[in-house]
Amino acid sequence: MRCQQVQKYLSAYFDGMSSPGETKYVESHLQSCASCRRELEKINQAVQVLGQLEEMEVPAGFLEELHIRLIRDKVEPWSASDYERYGRRGWTVALVSIIALGLGIWVATLIPYQDVVANINKLPQVIVQNHKR
């Protein structure tokens, strides 16, 4: 199992919530991967620090209000089709922008700037000095 896959299961493994198959794979991987062992140690340290925090008392009615808001404002997770639709739109916008930028740069190279500058230099130069009336 690759590190990226194992790291998805580390939290559940640490909490003892992984399936027997996942546990076996994670433990097998941890034997040979120092990086994932460090990640597991970071989880352990975070849990230790959180365990040392004092519990705070919440205001009266807070939990009931939270429960009501969670039910009322239920957030629907994005489906795969949402990712595809918005992902495709994003890539399309990016591609069109890159093409437009490329065309703009290409057109700019077609403008004969040196000729324009040469013609400007041929214009009569007028110097106006301050004079008092």
Task: Give a written overview of the molecule.
The chain is an all-alpha fold and 133 residues long. Among the domains are: 1-53; 80-119. Helices cover 72% and strands 0% of the residues. It contains 6 helices and no strands. The protein has helices spanning 3-14, 20-32, 34-52, 62-72, 80-110, 113-122. Helix 1 crosses helix 2. The longest helix is centred in the last third of the chain and has 31 residues, at 80-110. The chain is elongated, with a radius of gyration of 32 Å. The termini are far apart. The mean pLDDT is 82.
Main β-sheet description: none
Order of helices and strands: HHHHHH
Helix content: over 70%
Number of H/I helices: 6
Uncertain parts: none
Strand segment tally? 0
Instruction: Tell me the strand percentage band.
Output: under 5%
Measure the end-to-end span: 90 Å
Mean pLDDT, all residues:
82
Gross geometry: elongated
Coarse structural class? mainly alpha
Cα-atom radius of gyration: 32 Å
Q: What is the element layout, followed by pairings?
A:
Elements: H1 3-14, H2 20-32, H3 34-52, H4 62-72, H5 80-110, H6 113-122
Helix pairs in contact: 1-2, 1-3, 2-3
